[in-house]
User: What shape does this take?
Amino acid sequence: MTVSFYPDIKTVSGVNNSHATSYRAWLQYTFITSTTYREQVMSLLKEMECLNGSDISESIEQEWTFAIRKMIGFQPAVVPEVKGNGLRIVYVDSMEKEAFHIKNEDGIQILAGGEAGALYAVFTLLRHIQRQGDLHSLNMKEKPANPLRIINHWDNMDGSVERGYAGESMFYRDDSFRENIVRWKDYARLLASVGINAVSINNVNVHKVESYLITERYLKDVARVADIFRAYGIRLLLSINYASPMEVGGLTHADPLEEDVAAFWKQAFDDVYQAIPDFLGVVVKADSENRPGPFTYGRTHAEGANMLADAIAPHNGIVIWRCFVYDCHQDWRDRTTDRARAAYDHFMPLDGAFKDNVILQIKNGPMDFQVREPVSPLIGALKQTNVIVEFQLAQEYLGQQRHAVYLLPQWKEILNFDTGHEGEGTFVKDIASGKTYNPTHSGIAAVGNLGDDYNWTGHTLAQVNLYGYGRLTWDPTLNEDDILSEWSDLTFGQEEHIQQLLEAILLPSWLTYERYTSPLGIGWMINPGHHYGPNIDGYEYDAWGTYHFADRNGLGVDRTVETGTGYTSQYAEQNAKIYNDPNTCPEELLLFFHHMPYNYELTSGKTIIQHIYDTHFEGVKGVESMVANWEALEGKIDDKRFSDVLERLKHQLSHAIEWRDIINTYFYRKSGIKDIHQRKIYE
Amino acid sequence: MTVSFYPDIKTVSGVNNSHATSYRAWLQYTFITSTTYREQVMSLLKEMECLNGSDISESIEQEWTFAIRKMIGFQPAVVPEVKGNGLRIVYVDSMEKEAFHIKNEDGIQILAGGEAGALYAVFTLLRHIQRQGDLHSLNMKEKPANPLRIINHWDNMDGSVERGYAGESMFYRDDSFRENIVRWKDYARLLASVGINAVSINNVNVHKVESYLITERYLKDVARVADIFRAYGIRLLLSINYASPMEVGGLTHADPLEEDVAAFWKQAFDDVYQAIPDFLGVVVKADSENRPGPFTYGRTHAEGANMLADAIAPHNGIVIWRCFVYDCHQDWRDRTTDRARAAYDHFMPLDGAFKDNVILQIKNGPMDFQVREPVSPLIGALKQTNVIVEFQLAQEYLGQQRHAVYLLPQWKEILNFDTGHEGEGTFVKDIASGKTYNPTHSGIAAVGNLGDDYNWTGHTLAQVNLYGYGRLTWDPTLNEDDILSEWSDLTFGQEEHIQQLLEAILLPSWLTYERYTSPLGIGWMINPGHHYGPNIDGYEYDAWGTYHFADRNGLGVDRTVETGTGYTSQYAEQNAKIYNDPNTCPEELLLFFHHMPYNYELTSGKTIIQHIYDTHFEGVKGVESMVANWEALEGKIDDKRFSDVLERLKHQLSHAIEWRDIINTYFYRKSGIKDIHQRKIYE
Assistant: This one.
């Protein structure tokens, strides 16, 4: 199938020419003004050797010729055989499928383990050229660290996106698939360009209509999407409803140990693979937040997941089973129950009990994508179970893509966390990549931040998180500065001044957001439901297990072994010890683990209450800098993206002031302690 | 037009025979088991003299013969002339239209000023018979105290009801009128039986589609409703959209001083009266909560209302202009702005500036239908302006018809409040009735509590509020006990034990609700938006002007002249003085007017904090009693109503516990002061 891409930008629903730079994201392929460099490219890469392969080969040729023409101003010939200078792609059986080696030796060559590797190499080389990298000493040898590199869509078929902040779903509208092929292809291009190799296209909360995605009613449509993604090396996942045997199959139950249920799933997967032979597998949110699951029938999660695994195994499919299981009907009066404990308590006893094609997907922290949490104690503790670490690109609790927050620093901290489960140096990144325990499957998944907005992500700067997510899952050793400068070069051009301003805006943005929102590991001081804006007591007396316990003397959750919930004991010994003691607990997590008095003195010499005041004033100042830095970009980048971002930054500033004032006033009213700097705290 | 009524209960949408007792509300017309009494009725009232008049006459005959047949077991003959015993209705020109005099003199006679008066007399006599009142010494002389006795529906044409807690709209569905004639007629019967004489049938927030109610598109449907209501002496009102000249008329503005706008309204009202010659008038919410209004064009409310008044005057129509005008974008940081001041500040300067057919509708309190508020200072202060007092049957802030709350005690307090504006004894009830200032129009309106639920009001016991509202607006000197026992007799039968239990449940229910929710005049500690359930800080940092200012030392709003917002000065001198001083301020309103320390000692000898704890524990105990008392009714009333109410009372109990614990914990955490009785307050 041939689908044109964004030369035809006007064919994308809701996108017109004025949106072009926004829509192209980091695939601008801006014309390179250096004549010297262009001439070098023209001479070294005047032709490419044509490929004979699957749809991916066609994508490779398209991407290469299109991008070179845009950047350099000529279209390379595609020839049966390159003689002399040109681009040649050579498949090497001994290499891993997704690995590549780009070198300049007998002309520019890509050695690749397979077509996907070649595709990644082409995108890498194009990035290199856009940044005017040296082509003579080319020697780029890469392979992805994480076998699975997944985006989870939380799209509903009515067109809404759960926790979506970038318009409506690009896949669905009114319970049907949209006619949105050009955008789907452009989306696949964006993903492949940063190495994403799997996408689930429907919400993990699978409602009635989405339960039918695995049936005849929708499988042809699903296959259309799969076709588009396949040409970019991306495999499809669907979220399934654990109650489908009842809701779709007409059975009276969904007990995983009953024959008829197993038979239902076997048939369902046969149908799916009939339509999509390379279908990757399914994502399951079971027994979570009122979703059905094996608990209903007194079965374990292992029994529940293994039944699906057996049904999908003949097709080599996988079952991704989410560990986001906790009691969402908790009594706020009960200080002994601790939601943070839930995933570990539920899944740790099952280590080793899951089939080889089951993968547990574990959220990065024990709660739910807060501004700051410790790493989930389950990561690393499970040694005989396939795991995937789950991040969230969608900025649910992080400003909902109306606040600019560069998430890479958060993810880097998490990936570099030493779980200590196999002695010192048992890093999250190595557990995710499979290096530590060598599981059958491993990798990273993330909830996407995308919709049908003309800039994909609502906030233009939120594009960086999608870019960075891809790059980091490909290579977790990349650092956030380098990824940002790559992205900045590709997205806004290579002027050094632009890059400096973007760095000044984005590198500290997560910490800035943390400053004006959530001090010292306290989360959940947010409006319930939609999760936007401050509401300190919003979750305090609710059933979600999400409390701060602030009173007139102090705040924080006692999770110690001695006097608290004992959550600290879920970590490997050294970490457990550190977290359990307020004197050794990292201060940015102090209130996550301990209930502390307002006048407790931090290592900075400040009391907690003064720290709260200071960080909230600093946070607003940080946003003021962001606005000023962005304003300095006027005229240096296109007006549309300039004004789009400026509008959001201005909102961010006013909203940060709201956060600052509400939090400061709340804690001032409660503690009665004045700001030692006598700044304005409203009474 | 003849429409049958609830003998045909199965023809009402959503209602079946099992719902019969619920649906009949207080018009049960239960068969009277006393043979003596039945024989007395049969002998005294064996026939009635037929009437020749409008639709109301037909209603009178229908109501009388139907009810007598059900209660007594025979159907009175309707004869051209009653000779000897029987019921005769005689119209007396010198009486007011709605007045009547029932006496037994030459047989039972109803003297009435007009058909409406006769209808009210018939319902009164039927009530008397149902309660087996004496018929020999009959001498009931009545006329309504309030000329206008109105129910406002907040129904939207999509079928929803704003602040509706009893199902969907009985008037609309999917932007059309429903085919619901039987229910409309039964509704008119219920209203007329307690003297309501006007109904507005659409939400004061008039959206796009409802703007067309005054146009050809819907006027035929409106006229159908008017026909039904007319037969029960009820006139129709519509809420209008002040921006209709633009949204419906295609003008570019809605400036009330522009000719084209006036012409639009003149034409619109001509059309309305063409369809409904006795149309009563319009209700307007302008410049309120983001609704359009005259402020948009720099005009005053008087200019805005008078233009409409002039347009509708040729048809003798009225314009009811709501005074619920305030800044809903207030900054919580600003303690000087006071929403409570808003209505007075806006409207007081305009006293005397409104046309004779404009009526200002003033909410009972200065805020918005809280559990307890002082009386609006505007009531009584406006001396040269027609006013209507507005109540809310819909239990928006009072448990949403899931909690049983008998509202009459609240209304009685309000009606008996002495505003002092014409010296001692200037009661709200006399201002509303027109006795004090003798205005052209006056009366009482209330937001209805009705929907298409089979029991009309969601909670079966909420029927009492509709009944009581009608009775009280008819005669504000009736007391809440007597109204309750009337209602109880009619609704559940005359067993003394039943009545005692219902009194035990309902008479203290408002105070009980207040105890477990809102101490000492503090309001707004409720979930924003839907207004159900506790959320102490829910409105505290929001833009609605609704704050409690609780800190670690105390709580309440300083509305004094010296140190607060000066709101107290809006009252007549004596009240202003009383409210302004915490030592004389009625304690149930103490925190409405004053910011007080937790340890302030009340006249009970208790501190405020102890009062909070005590009332919250007592409130829950009160609900426990309600449940126990209701359970004692098992077998004494029909199962359906018994179980319906029991289910809601049980929910009320668990929800009251939630209120108690959250409020007690909130204030304990803030004050740090322990309950002197050492009951369980969660930390």
